[in-house]
Amino acid sequence: MIKAVRGTRDLLPPETALWNFVEAAVRDVFRAYNFQEIRTPIFEETALFARGVGEETDIVAKEMYTWEDRARAASEKGQSLTLRPENTAGVVRAYIEHKLWDRGLNKLYYIGPQFRRERPQKGRYRQFYQIGAEVIGPATAGSESPARDAEVLEMLATLLDRLGIVNWNLELNSVGAPADRVQFNEALRKALEPVVGQMCDDCQRRAVTNPLRVFDCKVLADQPIIDTLPRITHFLGEDSRQHFAAVQEILTKVGVPFTLNDRLVRGLDYYTRTAFEFTHGALGAQNAILGGGRYDGLSEALGGPAAPGIGFAIGEDRLVMSLQEKAPADSVLRKPDAYIAPLGAGMNGEAARLARELRRQELVIDLGDETFRLKKSFEAATKAGAKYIVIVGENEVKSGSFAVKNLSTGEQVSVTRGELAGRIRR
Ligand code: HAM
Fold first, then answer.
1. CB of 309 within 8 A of CB of 143?
2. Does any ligand 1 atom lie closer than 6 A to the CB of residue 125?
3. Is 153's C-beta closer than 6 angstroms to any atom of ligand 1?
4. What is the pTM of this model?
5. Which of 8, 152, 290, 293 fits as disulfide partner to 127, beta carbons 3.0 to 4.6 Å?
6. Ligand 1 in contact with 390 (CB < 6 A)?
């Protein structure tokens, strides 16, 4: 028996109704904030992620699905390709490739699968889905303003509230500008020197190549050491400090609560200044429902023009999980308004004609089969959760009058073809 690959899973009905409900609700919110959809390929050149996300991050160092794509001719070179582990690098690549700066400020969103070779557990998959957004453009279009950071965060609060997700916590930090990082890295290296020998292998490597990544360490024994390390917050330059203060001021003004977390550095190298995560208690160990932040230098790192940006990605699997706690998928599923039961030989065509008429009037119709006996049709209609059953037999077609039975009350009436849709809609 061939099964789904470890860390991947099938999304089945009725749960898929919950996914559709979530996606419809977020598209509504994006529309209200004037974001438009972008779709980028699910695989890209490996170099995009190495340069964009950073060689020393767990994502690039350990978790990517990468392969050498064979060349068609022996004379041609193969190409290293990677299933996208995230979508920000792809969006910025598209921004550069299509010169989207001509459009001023771009407010883009995406919904789609991402791939990381992580150890699978509840809320952590190797194919998972993200709902993300990016605000990016030339600084002259306002992309660098703290107003954009606050707008994105306020939109997220609105989105979670709209979905009925309560008890979220917004954790906020500033990871500074590259210039602030120079001094910080120096201080971090100095602080690590005497203790790094007691830390895990990853941290020993990080201490040399990219000390900030030490904060990503999940090894329990390393945590007390990490707690003693200097924090980026104390190394912020005047610009970064002012920017961070302005973001907090707007959030306070619009009434979005947050807590400051100076250990939050996020696991991707492109972040500058504002960094954030929304956590949710119901999710357990994998409690980050979404994460994001600013990436003011990413476009340049990918060979594009200066294009400050800020964005986020929601883990859709986790979002749906926290909804399932209180709203079963059934509650958002639209059940058939009616089940049409052809009764007797030669009735499939008549039943199909009636179903077509009713569906064109926006009704949800399930259609049976003429080989079913009446009892079996009733059972099928009940199983499908239909509100009404409509019998289509030779007599009904001849007289133009149909028996409509309400499957929950048992009430039965006879109505004409013209009245049928109205009756079912009641
Ligand atoms: P990230 O923090 O790596 O950020 O991922 C964002 C969210 O995706 C996480 O908070 C989590 O909910 C979900 N997620 C990540 N890995 C998994 C997994 N293995 N299984 C299930 N869910 C997962 C980014 O990806 C950035 N691109 C976000 C961003 C956009 N920053 C700026 N713009």
1. yes
2. yes
3. no
4. 0.94
5. 8
6. no
> Ligand 1 center to residue 389 CA distance, Å?
46
Residue 327: phi and psi, rounded to 5, are: -115, 105
Q: Tell me, in angstroms, the distance from the centre of ligand 1 to residue 290's CA.
A: 6
For ligand 1, is residue 54 a contact (CB within 6 Å)? no
Distance 87 CA to ligand 1 centre (A): 9
Q: In degrees, to the nearest 5, what angle opens at C-alpha 44 toward C-alphas 313 and 23?
A: 30
The three state secondary structure string of 222-247 is HHHHHHCCCCHHHHCCHHHHHHHHHH
Surface-to-core class of residue 419, CB atoms within 10 Å of its CB (0-12 exposed, 13-18 middle, 19+ buried): middle
Burial class (CB in 10 A: 0-12, 13-18, 19+), 100: buried
**Separation in Å, CA 147 to CA 142, 239, 249:** 9, 15, 10
The full length of the chain comes to: 426
161: amino acid identity, one letter: D
What tens digit of pLDDT does each residue of 225-249 get?
Answer: 999 999 999 999 999 999 999 999 9
- Determine the distance separating the centroid of ligand 1 and the alpha carbon of 424, expressed in angstroms: 45
* Both structure tokens of 147: 């107003």
Q: What is the pLDDT of residues 123-172, one digit of tens each?
A: 999 999 999 999 999 999 999 999 999 999 999 999 999 999 988 999 99
